[in-house]
């Protein structure tokens, strides 16, 4: 032990020289740019050693040289080699859906979604692989389907489009109808929903209306005491000079009630004497209006006097259900020669 210690103390420079010689003029393992790799795992390389560089899987080499050499100075020669990620082709569009991606290079991802009412057949995502292809093909968005619409008793449905087979695509609708005297109760429209179910099916029910009452001063086309079916009609008319106001026909409605009935409006007499009126485009002496009556809604003009101008002018008034108001400007003249209708008109 003492001999070994003495040797170490006498020759320390020899050990130091050996260690230094082992690390002098050698190259350390090179630091390479991202995605570049090389063969071998050793830490030190002697001058003259060549290393072949390559790109990692999924990357393409550009620029040369693709070799580096350990120089006598202990450094590696330079290289411009770059490894660029491989690129996948642009994806095909997705019918009835959307696709989302930021790039198409190696390890990029595409996410697929289908529009409302459509389900995806295939993978919802794809990855750009090292060989420049997508991991999965573009999926298919297929419409949600419903069975044929349920049909209520005494009813039918008319689809919005021609139907083939025993299923209907999402969004397709139809209109229900019922065989007379049944009518649709509920929403007559139905649609295949996103859940693959039809909206609520209406019912077909019988609706009738009782015999309606007659109108004052009028008559109706039927007085048979029975129930009248939905959409069955009855007509009305008025007696004598009474005028029908409203629809001459009423109809049995879906709520079991008749539509609004008309009414009979009375004629009017013209309450003036010894004067002319303008009626239906003609001047008529009131005594010649036989009988003295105009019908409801008829318009009559009487003549008034503009005293400062000494001229006459016609003023309209209308018969409303037996009442015809004479304009306040009208005065019954004492002298027939001074009638406003017989002098110069203003």
TrEMBL record:
Signal peptide: 1-21
Disulfide bonds: 27-70, 114-141, 209-252
A Gene Ontology term for the protein's cellular component: extracellular region
Domain of life according to the entry: Eukaryota
Tagged with keyword Endoplasmic reticulum: no
Molecular function via GO: heparin binding
Entry's localization field: Secreted
Claim: Coiled coil is one of the keywords in the record: no
Predominant localisation class: secreted
SMART domains, alphabetized: CCP
Sequence ranges assigned to domain Sushi in this UniProt record: 25-85, 86-143, 144-206, 207-266
Key words of the record: Disulfide bond, Glycoprotein, Heparin-binding, Repeat, Secreted, Signal, Sushi
Record function comment: Binds to various kinds of negatively charged substances such as heparin, phospholipids, and dextran sulfate. May prevent activation of the intrinsic blood coagulation cascade by binding to phospholipids on the surface of damaged cells.
Stored PANTHER family: COMPLEMENT C2 (PTHR46393:SF7), SUSHI DOMAIN-CONTAINING PROTEIN (PTHR46393)
Name used for this protein in its record: Beta-2-glycoprotein 1
Gene behind this protein: LOC117561999
């Amino acid at each position: 032990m003492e001999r070994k210690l003495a040797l170490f103390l006498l020759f320390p420079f020899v050990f130091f020289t050996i260690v230094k010689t082992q690390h002098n003029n050698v190259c350390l393992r090179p630091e390479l740019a991202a995605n570049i790799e090389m063969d071998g795992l050793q830490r030190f390389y002697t001058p003259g050693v060549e290393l072949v560089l390559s790109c990692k899987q999924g990357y393409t080499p550009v620029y040369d040289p693709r070799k580096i050499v350990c120089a006598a100075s202990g450094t590696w020669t330079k290289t411009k080699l770059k490894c660029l990620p491989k690129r996948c082709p642009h994806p095909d569009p997705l019918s009835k859906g959307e696709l989302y991606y930021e790039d198409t290079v190696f390890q990029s991802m595409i996410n697929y979604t289908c529009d409302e009412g459509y389900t995806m057949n295939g993978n919802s995502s794809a990855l750009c692989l090292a060989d420049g292809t997508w991991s999965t093909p573009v999926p298919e968005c297929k419409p949600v389907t419903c069975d044929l619409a349920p049909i209520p008793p005494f009813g039918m449905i008319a689809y919005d489009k021609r139907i083939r087979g025993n299923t209907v695509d999402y969004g397709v609708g139809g209109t229900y109808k019922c065989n007379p005297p049944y009518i649709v109760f509920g929403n007559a429209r139905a649609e295949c929903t996103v859940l693959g179910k039809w909206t609520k099916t209406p019912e077909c029910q019988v609706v009738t209306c009782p015999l309606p009452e007659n109108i004052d001063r009028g008559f109706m086309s039927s007085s048979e005491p029975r129930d009248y079916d939905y959409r069955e009609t009855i007509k009305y008319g008025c007696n004598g000079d009474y005028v029908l106001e409203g629809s001459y026909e009423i109809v049995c409605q879906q709520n079991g009630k008749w539509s609004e009935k008309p009414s009979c409006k009375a004629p009017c007499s013209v309450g003036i004497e010894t004067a002319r009126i303008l009626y239906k485009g003609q001047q008529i002496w009131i005594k010649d209006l036989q009988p003295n009556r105009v019908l409801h809604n008829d318009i009559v003009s009487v003549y008034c006097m503009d005293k400062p101008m000494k001229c006459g002018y016609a003023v309209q008034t209308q018969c409303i259900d037996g009442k015809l108001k004479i304009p306040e400007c009208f005065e019954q003249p004492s002298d027939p020669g001074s009638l406003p209708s017989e002098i110069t008109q203003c």
